[in-house]
Amino acid sequence: MSRSVLVTGGNRGIGLAIARAFADAGDKVAITYRSGEPPEGFLAVKCDITDTEQVEQAYKEIEAEHGPVEVLIANAGVTKDQLLMRMSEEDFTSVLDTNLTGTFRVVKRANRGMLRARKGRVVLISSVVGLYGGPGQANYAASKAGLVGFARSLARELGSRNITFNVVAPGFVDTDMTKVLSDEQREGIVKQVPLGRYAQPEEVAATVRFLASDDASYITGAVIPVDGGLGMGH
Ligand code: NDP
């Protein structure tokens, strides 16, 4: 059955791999992008998730083309790494506003249709750093840890409506986000990963698609690591 799927930040990186995985399985996939040319093969809607009006407009466009969103993948996210002493309040609040409050905005709007349909699947993209911590990433880690409490609260609040909320916590993945790291930093990270390498975006996408599938019908409030073993026990 073809479902209406929305992947925020589906224009590149992990989000694009997720969008492709759903499209390959026959779903109707919408993606958000902020600028430039979005990739072909999806319903691309312009949307900055820090802006409630743009979120509302994006949902209206998607609903007109694909119907209410049945599967939401809240993937859009940013980093602004900085040591605490040098981290400005803006560095902190802007990361929270995208990663955590932005996710709140898109989830809240999706929930309207899901409540009406009495079913829905929501997957939030967190990070191993959310529970493991990362020096220079206090803002990012706080936002990603926040997603866990957010998802688990909603899993309890809306479980009786047959809406599941799960979190995927990737480790280090080969995307633009990690391209900024130096070779030295990269080597240091890989040394700590039991599988000894970065993930490819498709390896994250496979887990996301599973959580949105019928096979995951009894899974909610879970945090699934896709991190090569980096965060074991966290
Ligand atoms: P990229 O930097 O490659 O892509 C980030 C995506 O988020 C882009 O599509 C970007 O859109 C979108 N985005 C950022 N800010 C906003 C905003 N305000 N409104 C709408 N869209 C926005 O990152 P990745 O693909 O690597 O990361 C995807 C997710 O996975 C993020 O949440 C990230 O934190 C998480 N993650 C990544 C890991 C990694 O190692 N790469 C590890 C663990 C988690 P645009 O193109 O317009 O900028």
Spell out which ligands are present: NADPH dihydro-nicotinamide-adenine-dinucleotide phosphate
Based on helices, strands and strand pairing, what is the structural class? Answer: alpha/beta
Largest sheet: 7 strands, parallel
Strand proportion? 15-25%
Q: What number is the mean pLDDT?
A: 97
Could you say what the CATH topology is called?
Answer: Rossmann fold
Distance, first to last CA: 36 Å
Return the string of H and E elements: EHEEHEHEHHEHHHE
- For the largest beta sheet, what order do the strands appear in spatially? 3-2-1-4-5-6-7
Q: How many strands appear in the DSSP assignment?
A: 7
User: Roughly how many Å is the radius of gyration?
Assistant: 17 Å
Shape-level CATH architecture: 3-Layer(aba) Sandwich
Can you identify the CATH superfamily? Answer: NAD(P)-binding Rossmann-like Domain
Write down the domain tally: 1
Percent range of helical residues: 40-55%
The level-1 CATH class: Alpha Beta
DSSP summary: helix tally: 8
Shape: globular
